[in-house]
Amino acid sequence: MNFVTLNNGVRMPKQGFGVFQITDAPACEQAVTDAIETGYRLIDTASVYGNEQAVGAAVRKCHIPREELFLTTKAWISEMGYSRTLQAFDASLARLGTDYIDLYLIHMPFGDYYGAWRAMEELYATGRVRAIGVCNFEPDRLLDLCYNAKIIPAVNQIETHPYTQQNDAIRIMQSLGIQAEAWGPLAEGRNELFRNPLLLSIGRKYGKSAAQVILRWHWQKGIVAIPKTVHRERMAENFAIRDFELTEEEMASIAAFDTRRSTILDLHSPAEVKRLYNIECKN
Q: Is residue 246 domain-resident?
């Protein structure tokens, strides 16, 4: 297993497994079980996904010591604010059935996330969470939080894939010592990404799929990626990216895909913000 070292010294696996939209409990538990057996040690969930209990069940039943696993969960918009976030953390901890969380994140840059951050700083101080961070924070909000926080976020989990590369944001994060983590690293297969002639051509050179080329591209950029699938063979495929290396020219050719805008989640859209506020945690 390869790791990145966060700004507080905690080691985080460089490859992770996400469970977004795996809402059926047995299917989620099986997917996490398969992922752990495949070799994944970073499992990413969230209170709003409604599957923390299934993730926790898989973790408890596996034969891997808890300290060798890296569990991430997140507090939703309705859980923002000092008291609400403390309550939300306790609820997530109970659903996961563990004594601590490895990484606790603010899911969206909305609501009273300053109050939430104060709560998370306290949780970190007590050792109930090993690292704290944010999701979907663009540079302006990230900088503002950093200037007003006691603890700099360890991670910012953002939409990152060949079509939405966020290079300027990542450079700012690097300057602050914040680790970039990619959700949707395969762009949910949009715009025929898996059939892209360039990616297929690069893949043929190494005996790899287009998805493996994309995940290797993230790897070489130093970005932690958390692809999701319920198919064990694809889990294994997504995990098998450490035995080849893209050239500088190949990295540059993929960099040319960048549209410099969101492909999946546009947080500047009022309709999208309204939609997110209407989502409730159901556990």
A: yes
The enclosing domain of 137 has a CATH number of 3.20.20.100
Residue 283 placed within a domain: no
Question: Cα(224)–Cα(36) distance, rounded to whole angstroms?
Answer: 17
| Structural domain range at position 151 | 3-277
In this prediction the pTM is 0.96
Instruction: Look at residue 282 and tell me if it is in a domain.
Output: no
Q: Is 194 exposed, middle or buried (0-12, 13-18, 19+ CB in 10 A)?
A: middle
Residue 282 has pLDDT above 80, yes or no: no
Cα(207)–Cα(245) distance, integer angstroms: 12
Active site residue 124: no
**Of 241, 147, 109, residue with least CA distance to 185:** 241
255 DSSP β-pair partners:
none
**Model pLDDT for residues 110-145, shown as the tens digit of each residue:** 999 999 999 999 999 999 999 999 999 999 999 999
Q: pLDDT for 38-52, tens place per residue?
A: 999 999 999 999 999
Number of domains forming the structure of the chain: 1
Alpha-carbon span 164 to 145, nearest angstrom: 23
**Domain assignment present for 180:** yes
Catalytic option among 40, 49, 104, 124: 49
CB-CB contact of 88 with 123 (8 Å): no
- Looking at residue 281, what is its pLDDT? 84
Query: In 3D, which of 54, 44, 49, 42 has the Cα closest to residue 239?
Result: 42
